[in-house]
Write a structure and sequence with these properties.
Elements (H helix, E strand, L loop, with lengths): L2 E4 L7 H12 L4 E4 L4 E6 L3 H11 L8 E3 L6 H4 L4 H9 L5 E6 L15 E5 L4 H10 L3 E5 L12 H8 L5 E4 L9 E4 L6 E4 L10
Parallel strand pairs: 1-8, 2-8, 4-6, 5-9
Antiparallel strand pairs: 2-3, 3-7, 4-7, 5-6, 9-10
Helix pairs in contact: 1-5
Length: 206
């Protein structure tokens, strides 16, 4: 049975943030709000938790997982970027974008696309996420909360609890945060490629 925390979207309660991070560190899966939709998250190094998320969403090995970061200072650890790419990322973070980048050896292989060796990087504009990441001290392994055979993410935390209370360890109710997934931009090559049009404005990448 999952826990259910109501966390203030602008002034997150430190006690609840710490409890949520303890759940992550102990191998738990959390549902948490971002700046455009709710997401599933777990500890970066926890294989069992990643496998549980794959089961919930019925994902195959070709799915690009995303590392949710508090800012771009962590990006050099997990992704390879040149100066031009970094400037582009800096201009659009925080925001509703997921950037597909070449991964470094710091990223566990099970999180990578098996052929392309890529990873998603995301810096949401959301106070709850910022508080979680500050307390955790490293990125959250994440994917949008889109159920199998659905096109849009779930939006109601109470519905999430009813649906997934036996499959996740914590549902964070941070209020309504939208129902559109991020825009996904592939930054592998010199010219950015829009993989998915979502909440973030992609005109700057065309």
């Amino acid at each position: 049975m999952s826990q259910f925390f109501q966390i203030h979207p602008e002034n997150p309660q430190p006690r609840l943030i710490k409890q949520a991070v303890d759940i992550l560190r102990n191998g738990g899966i959390i549902i948490y709000p971002t700046d455009c939709a709710y997401a599933l998250g777990c500890h970066l190094g926890d294989k069992k938790a990643v496998d549980r998320i794959k089961q919930i969403r019925r994902l195959d090995d070709k799915h690009n997982f995303t590392l949710v970061c508090d800012d771009l200072s962590a990006i050099g650890t997990y992704a390879k970027v040149d100066n031009q790419t970094f400037r582009l990322l800096k201009a659009h973070t925080p925001g509703a974008y997921t950037f597909i980048l070449p991964a470094t050896t710091e990223v566990p292989r099970r999180l990578l696309h098996p052929k392309r060796r890529t990873i998603g990087i995301r810096v949401p504009d959301n106070a709850i996420v910022a508080a979680l990441l500050s307390e955790l001290g490293e990125p959250i392994m994440s994917t949008s909360l889109i159920m199998p055979d659905e096109e849009l993410p779930l939006t109601d935390p109470y519905e999430m609890r009813d649906l997934l209370q036996h499959q996740v360890d914590l549902v964070i109710d941070g209020g309504y945060c939208g129902m559109e997934a991020t825009s996904v931009v592939n930054m592998i090559d010199e010219v950015p490629v829009i993989v998915r049009e979502g909440a973030g404005n992609t005109e700057h990448f065309k």
